[in-house]
Amino acid sequence: MKTNTFIHKKTWAFMKKLLTFMALLTFTANISVWGQTITIGAGTTYSASNTITPYSTSYMDGRHQYLILASEITAAGGQAGTITHLGFQIYSVGSPAMSNFNVSLKQTTITELTTTYETGLTTVYSNASYTPAGTGWQWLMLDIPFAWNGTSNLLVQVCFDNTSYTSSSSVYYSTVTGNMHHYGYADNETGCSMTAPTYNGVNAFRPNIGLYFSCSSPAGMIYSSSYYLTNVTTTGCTKNINNTTTFVSGGYSNYYSNTYSCIAAAGSAITIALTTSTGTHHYYIWIDWNSDGDYLDSGETLLATTGYTAGYTLNYTVPAGTAPGPYRMRVANSY
């Protein structure tokens, strides 16, 4: 059964084939834009060619650099902020697993790639052995979030170093203007540090790339050191949230951890319980079901109480037909 995931703890967590509710605690909330997924490229053609895919495991070693222009990011709706996830759209998964797998990023002014590798990148994700979990969008939660300034072009490097080979993963890609892909692959090379692979070239074939920009603190917060949310708990999920919280200056906590997630199937009944420090409060819960970076759309306000109570438990049914994937959840109280 396909499942959905609701994440609670410093808000980003993308989980493959799961719905992610990111539980972000606010004291009083204004519903501002606060996290966004964008895709660069919408190509519907797929290929396992090593001159296209970053996961070129039909050779032992791969080092691929992709250039994304700032204008492409802004055209897709991105703005200056922190990138916390990066994804590729997979058609089929190859093998073997990629050893010493790394993803690196860099802001740059270059507008086209050459057969000389760009240097000075920051490694933002590492995995001793990585295989995409399946088809469709497969996301990597970055070990080190990357701050994009909103004006520079973005360079993405994917590399690995294997001792065997079988087949490459097939990815959806787009044909762009200019040499936006520098590919390199070989056998018995040095993976991420190789500079002159056997097959070394540039082209205009770039995989569809997803970027997730994390939320920033909501504006206009009014907060109290006496009245605040102390716990968010879910039941009825195959994995539940039970997160104890406390007062935070500014009235906002941004939680991030796969530990704090509620995994539930579409159509299943769950409960979300909010408790507070003292007294009675209003309570609010939102979920960004269409992942457009706000909580303004129909069906995205799950709870907005009109009376004061000492805590509140919401009985909720995950909408039938909801696609597997990551979704953000915001919870708030006011007094």
Strands, helices and their partners?
Layout: E1 4-7, E2 23-26, E3 36-40, E4 45-47, E5 61-68, H1 70-75, E6 81-92, E7 98-108, E8 122-130, E9 136-148, E10 153-161, E11 170-175, E12 181-186, E13 199-203, E14 205-207, E15 209-213, E16 229-235, E17 242-244, E18 252-254, E19 261-264, E20 269-276, E21 282-287, E22 301-304, E23 312-317, E24 326-327, E25 329-334
Parallel strand pairs: 1-24, 2-25
Antiparallel strand pairs: 1-19, 2-18, 3-15, 4-11, 5-10, 5-12, 6-9, 6-11, 6-15, 7-8, 7-10, 11-14, 12-13, 16-17, 16-20, 20-23, 21-22, 21-25
Describe this structure in words.
- By secondary structure, this protein is an all-beta fold.
- 2% of the residues lie in helices and 45% in strands.
- The protein is built from 1 helix and 25 strands.
- The strands form 5 sheets. Strands 3, 4, 6, 9, 11, 14 and 15 form a 7-stranded antiparallel β-sheet that branches.
- Strand 16 and strand 17 (242-244) form a beta hairpin.
- The longest helix is centred in the first third of the chain and has 6 residues, at 70-75.
- The protein is elongated, with a radius of gyration of 22 Å.
- Mean pLDDT is 84; it is low at 1-18 and 22-34.
How much helicity do the residues have?
Answer: under 10%
Q: Based on DSSP secondary structure assignment, what is the total number of beta strands?
A: 25
> What coarse outline follows from CA principal-axis ratios?
elongated
Q: Spans of 5+ residues with little confidence (pLDDT < 50)? A: 1-18, 22-34
Biggest sheet layout: 7 strands, antiparallel
